[in-house]
Amino acid sequence: MLVALPAFAGGAELGKPAPDFTLQDLDGKEVKLSSFKGKTVVLEWFNPECPFVKAAHGKGSLVDTAKQQQKKGVVWLSVNSGAPGKQGTGVEKNKAAVKSFAMENPVLLDETGTVGKAYGATNTPHLFIVDAKGTLVYRGGIDNSPDGEGKSPEGGKLINHVVAALEDLAANRPVKTPDTKAYGCSVKYAN
Amino acid sequence: MLRQVRELILIPLLVLAACTKEAAPAPAPAPAPTAEKKAAPAADNYALSIEARAPYTAGKEALAAITVSAKNGFHVNPDYPVAFKPEGFEAVKFAEERVRLQPGQKTPCAEKAEDACTVEFPLALTPEKAGPAKVAGVLAFSVCSADKCLIEKVPLSLALTVE
Questions:
Q1: A93 at the B interface (CB within 8 A)?
Q2: What whole-number distance in Å separates Cα of residue B10 and Cα of residue B7?
Q3: Which backbone phi and psi does B92 adopt, to 5 degrees?
Q4: In this complex, do A188 and B147 lie within 8 Å of one another by their Cβ atoms?
Q5: Which of B17, B79, B83 lies nearest to residue A51, judging by beta carbons?
Q6: For a Cys staple, B74 with which of A127, B33, B45, B95, CB 3.0–4.6 Å?
Q7: Does residue A15 form part of some domain?
């Protein structure tokens, strides 16, 4: 459930403050983005029944990526902006996915889609990175292989765009590739 | 059984990469031993065919045509990297172990013209010798509707005779 809301329209802009939000996780605990100021935050738009999400978490670039980044101090939040009744929505389905994908990060429910639309999230998976100052520094796909499995990288070499961006941030470099094309399922907004 | 030119054999086996409940395949018809006749593994949301594009000459690159037809509100996902992974083929060779297919002729969906409901993907192959040969492998593709996407991996096979 959305507890508080952003007054942003048209999607979040790179280099600008990331829209703040407060959402509840699968246990009803409120999670507020701005409470993580000082840390790098990754937002992963999520739908446990989207086959691209399944592929990415099952054998593609999302396997263990969140866990590895969390060990480095990165905050990783999955966000499900699907409306009630749509594919992959509801606490139980998402809890089951957390278990099957062995996820250790929170999944936040954004059933009104307000946060998803504030960021301009169009796909699952769709990734956004907010730096320690609260600035949006990356938006796009998890990688350059739009099959979700990492088997068809464009240009022949698989690149995990999110890991690359996080490496840039960790090294105090500007993110070299801040904007890539997201691929996958559409976000199942109410409208 | 092979005849003069080519026969078509399609294996009606579906391998679902995901969403197993979403795309239960219907049983495919028995192989049609008639040259150039298309047969199609079919599911609720799509149908496939693989068709010979003669002539086939030993050592000379040629084509087979794979067609993905989405139905029941689905369209062919234009962003998915459609690929053919050769497996169990005989007397032909392919350029890669996993052949990325580029879309050819497209037919717009009746209900939404910006989407393609039928897309043909030419598959390049080179027959190695004269006589019977078989193109076989697994096609990976995706179809989507407003409600969901499917990623499918479906075995296809095409028997042909090389001159």
A1: no
A2: 10
A3: -135, 160
A4: yes
A5: B17
A6: B45
A7: no
Task: Give the model's pLDDT for residue B39.
Answer: 52
Q: Give me the number of domains chain B comprises.
A: 1
B110 domain-assigned = yes
B10 pLDDT above the threshold of 90: no
- Give me the amino acid identity at A137: V
pLDDT recorded at residue B43: 87
CA-to-CA distance for A112 and B26, rounded, in angstroms?
Answer: 37
Q: In terms of Cα–Cα distance, which of A175, A75, A172, A89 is closest to A124?
A: A89
A172 is written with which tokens? 């105090």
CA pair distance A176, B30, nearest whole angstrom: 54
Q: Let me know if residue B8 belongs to a domain.
A: no
CATH code of residue B37: 2.60.40.10
Interface pTM, i.e. ipTM: 0.84
A182 interface with B at CB cutoff 8 Å: no
- Let me know if residue B1 belongs to a domain: no
Instruction: Give the domain extent around A169.
Output: 38-130+138-186
Provide block-wise average pLDDT over 10 residues at a time, chain A (191 residues). Answer: 43 95 98 98 98 97 97 98 97 98 98 98 98 98 97 95 98 98 97 89
Is B24 within a domain? yes
Place of tokens 């369209």: B75
Amino acid at B12: P
> Model pTM greater than 0.90?
no
Domain membership of residue B72 as a residue range: 15-162
Q: What is the CATH number of the domain that holds A77?
A: 3.40.30.10
Alpha-carbon A2 to chain mean position = 17
Say how far apart CA B91 and CA B56 lie, in whole Å: 12
Nearest to A51 among B19, B79, B146 (CB): B19
Residue A163 lies in a domain: yes
